[in-house]
Amino acid sequence: MRIYPAVHYTMGGTWVDYGLMSTLPGLFIIGEANFSDHGANRLGASGLMQGLADGYFILPYTIGHYFASTKPEKIPVGHAEFKKAEEGVRQFTRRLLSINGKRSATSFHKELGRLMWENCGMARTRQSLETNLKRIPELREEFWKNVKVTGSGEELNQNLEHAGRVADFLEFAELLCLDALHREESCGGHFRVEHQTEDGEAKRDDANFAYVAAWEFKGPDKKPELHKEPLVYEEVHLATRSYK
Amino acid sequence: MNLTLKIWRQKNAASPGCLETHEARDVSPDMSFLEMLDMVNERLVAGGQEPFVFDSDCREGICGTCSLVINGVPHGSRKGTTVCQLHMRHFQDGQTITVEPWRARAFPIVKDLIVDRAAFDRIMLAGGFISVNTGNAPEANALPVSKEIADLAMDAAACIGCGACVAVCKNASAMLFVAAKVSHLNYLPQGQAEKDRRVKNMVLQMDQEGFGNCTVTGSCEAVCPKEISLDFIAKMNRDYAVAVVKGELKKSAAGGTG
């Protein structure tokens, strides 16, 4: 068995409000899929804790409140937004199937994975992140010119599903690197080699980076917008934990 | 190692299927069976052919998604092992291996090696739950559970709902799955409120889904990757008999005000 840090240790997640609702009204996101409850690192069993806390203590109140205060209208499939979304998916599928290139989605997935592992792994540097920020758009461009997806969009097609995921990963991986480059400090699971103490411990910069970076997606190939959510502590104060 | 694979190919439930022969070259004995299939698929895609679809998710033997009949045995012939944890070192160089989907009327084929196991979900919906109030967590010692009961319930809860029991059974019976799910909750104090309803509704749903009857041959227990015991079937039969004898509660005419 190969042992390596899983996606869990990227520490991020989808932005939600205090009621755990995302930017889409009515779409609640709980557990590890949201960004909310953990800090710069994940400590033992915090994934389980978050699932329990969100599901047991928060959602029973917030979803109930949402239903009580919102009257859901029946949205017919003839609705303009529905048609737009359906057409979008149709075009996306057609595009993937029509490229008929030379490389499988798996080979792009593996190459991207290796880039992330080498350059945006547990220890990252400005140089390694900049390498990725150059390589990932190139790989994405190649994907959209040279991916090979077999079968059709009319039936179960795992190859097509996988290609769709890899297309997403190719966008998201770039954001991960961009965020890691932006955060000029070492903090929890984010260890920037340039920012360490003399004995090799993570060196935080609370004066400049004591905030959550919420990146707003502006569309493919557009720069995401950074929203800073300051971390304000009233009772507990920021301190450095030493495991030594 | 080099292997000859005979893999089931079927476009959908309405079309007939057949075994297709493929050569798998340079297979590492360290690969899992699913990694070997991934490699075969990757080569098919490279050659412009459609890959075989098969179900998998965690690949750690705990999600119950993988579902292949290998050389006639669901999950292959290693005891207490799911396909994802079956490694190629248990096969021999030059061997011919047949790979088929689960076969049961209640599990219609979706495509190739994937079957639709929604029948299991509907059985769970019929009674595989307990009713609790949300809000503050109850005091941990409010419901004492003895060690014996906790152990038995845990053994039943080990069922991952993969459906190997159905796939191996000559009657395509789902009794081991349903028995594990009924027993898990019927043993525990939290499950007592719905105990009789649970067993009756889940058994009724199981019958409606078209699973066969149990003739206690025990092949399900033999292939179960979580080694669920036949004893749970006896427990379920007992709970079912008690529930039938007790009959329905008389319905209150007025009901509460809610």
Structural overview:
The complex is a heterodimer of chains A (244) and B (258). Chain A is mostly helical and 244 residues long. In chain A, 45% of the residues lie in helices and 8% in strands. Chain A has 6 helices and 6 strands; from the N terminus they run H-H-E-H-E-H-E-H-E-H-E-E. In chain A, the strands form 3 sheets. A two-stranded parallel ribbon of chain A has the order 1-3. A two-stranded parallel ribbon of chain A has the order 2-4. Chain A has a two-stranded antiparallel ribbon with strand order 5-6. Chain A starts with 45 loop residues before the first helix and ends in a 14-residue tail after the last strand. In chain B, strand 1 and strand 2 form a beta hairpin. In chain B, helix 2 packs antiparallel against helix 6, helix 5 (175-187) packs across helix 8 (231-246) and helix 6 (195-208) packs across helix 8 (231-246).
Low-confidence stretches of chain A: none
- Largest sheet report of chain B: 5 strands, mixed
Total individual domains of chain B: 2
Continuous helix count of chain B: 8
CATH homology superfamily of the largest domain in chain B:
Alpha-helical ferredoxin
Determine the CATH topology of the largest domain in chain B. Answer: Fumarate Reductase Iron-sulfur Protein, Chain B, domain 2
- Form type of chain B: elongated
Strand order of the largest sheet of chain A: 1-3
What is the CATH architecture assignment of the largest domain in chain B? Orthogonal Bundle
Largest sheet, spatial ordering of strands of chain B: 2-1-5-3-4
The overall strand count of chain A is 6
Largest interface: A-B, 14 and 19 residues
Write down the Rg of chain A.
21 Å
Distance between the termini of chain B: 67 Å
**SSE sequence of chain B, one letter per element:** EEHEEEEEHHHHHHH
CATH class of the largest domain in chain A: Mainly Alpha
Mean pLDDT of chain A: 90
What gyration radius of chain B follows from the Cα positions, in whole Å? 21 Å
In quaternary terms, these chains amount to: heterodimer
Q: Tell how many strands the DSSP assignment of chain B holds.
A: 7
> Level of helix content of chain B?
25-40%
